[in-house]
Amino acid sequence: MLMRSAQPPLRVAGLTKRFGGLVAVRNLGFEIHRGEILGLIGPNGSGKSTVMKLIMGVERATAGRIVLEGTDIAGWPTHRIAQHGIGIVFQHSRPLHRQTVLENIKLALLPDSLFKLVAEPHVDRRARDIAIQVGLEAVMDRRPPTLPFADLRRLEIAKVLARDPKVVLVDEPFAGLTSAEIAMFSEIIDGFRREGRAVLLVDHNVKSVAALVDRVLALYLGEYVAEGTTEQVMTMRPSVASILAAG
Ligand SMILES: Nc1ncnc2c1ncn2[C@@H]1O[C@H](COP(=O)(O)OP(=O)(O)OP(=O)(O)O)[C@@H](O)[C@H]1O
Ligand SMILES: [Mg+2]
After folding, report:
1. Which of 66, 113, 146, 149 has the most beta carbons within 10 angstroms of its beta carbon?
2. Within a domain: residue 230?
3. Could you give the residue ranges of the DSSP H alpha helices within 91-225?
């Protein structure tokens, strides 16, 4: 197990998001340490994706602090948050269709310098390593439109890894996957932890989440319900499991 540094990579405090009259997230706080996976669980509409969008700057928080390695990034634009070390694995992939898998990864490695695409051998090596790490070695030279769904999901993960994020947000990675693919993706996400990243994971597949995470935080209608190991949370009274099943 990795040493816990005094300052966790990500700390959220008082996080609140209103959409008009609806409070999607209310006064939420948590920390994620290096080499730790925190699972965010809760029924549909409980605010899980909104929490991720707030951290990534896709949505702007109504109130609260989002502290990345000591710096409050609340209100920053997404690209700046990405530069400072947070990556999000979106459920829907958005690769460049006319570039190969390998080229897509290279572009993620060099977001600000398109020109180096052909030139740099170390970039090529790094891109190949990432492709191998996520299981894309056999399809590196193919273009995304020809790939199956699971490979597109792998490519999204590869693009996030290319930015070497300290904090990784993963929303619904298991949706639409077979159980063999879920095992494969669980292994990849476990790899983020071994590399010392702080991971926030959301998925409806509670069993697969429970098998991976160090802790879970349960949300209901945007509010904190409980936090602890999956077993602690699921066996709490009044029954958190039944609240969570409500969705
Ligand atoms: N852009 C938006 N405008 C208005 N309301 C929104 C917006 N985004 C989310 N909401 C509302 O905020 C609440 C939380 O939504 P969110 O998508 O975060 O839930 P979730 O826990 O991710 O749900 P699911 O499990 O279905 O993915 C819901 O009531 C949703 O309808
Ligand atoms: Mg969601």
Report:
1. 66
2. yes
3. 101-109, 121-133, 149-162, 179-194, 206-212
